[in-house]
Specification:
It contains 4 helices and 3 strands; from the N terminus they run E-H-H-E-E-H-H. It is an alpha+beta fold and 102 residues long. It has a 3-stranded mixed beta sheet with strand order 1-2-3. Strand 2 and strand 3 form a beta hairpin.
């Protein structure tokens, strides 16, 4: 059974007929417009402003997660650390300054 959504909906047929009208509806309602195909959600139409706002919020949330993960790692006291030499070892490698790599 199809659940009635509290957001604007349209059909794929209507989207094909008048795409700008659907985008304008998304702007006016300040929410996405669900596009239905045989009473199943096929996609959501957003205005450019809504799309950018969602991406900005997503980026901010990812940044916050990164900061929290970093704080958690730094708060741990039972960690083992290694020196640079232990990690990379020491290799006697000759560097050819004329190898063509700049």
């Amino acid at each position: 059974m199809f659940k009635v959504l509290d957001v604007p909906t349209t059909s794929i047929t209507e989207l094909k007929k008048a795409p700008m009208a659907i985008i304008d509806l998304a702007k006016e309602s300040n929410t996405g417009v669900y596009v239905l195909n045989r009473n199943e959600v096929a996609g959501v139409v957003l205005s450019e402003h809504q799309y950018k706002a969602i991406n900005k919020e997503n980026d901010q949330l990812h940044e916050e997660i990164l900061l929290l993960e970093t704080a958690l790692r730094l708060s741990k006291t039972d960690i083992v650390t290694f020196t640079d030499k232990e990690v990379r070892a020491s290799y006697d490698v000759e560097i050819d300054e004329n190898d063509g790599w700049d």
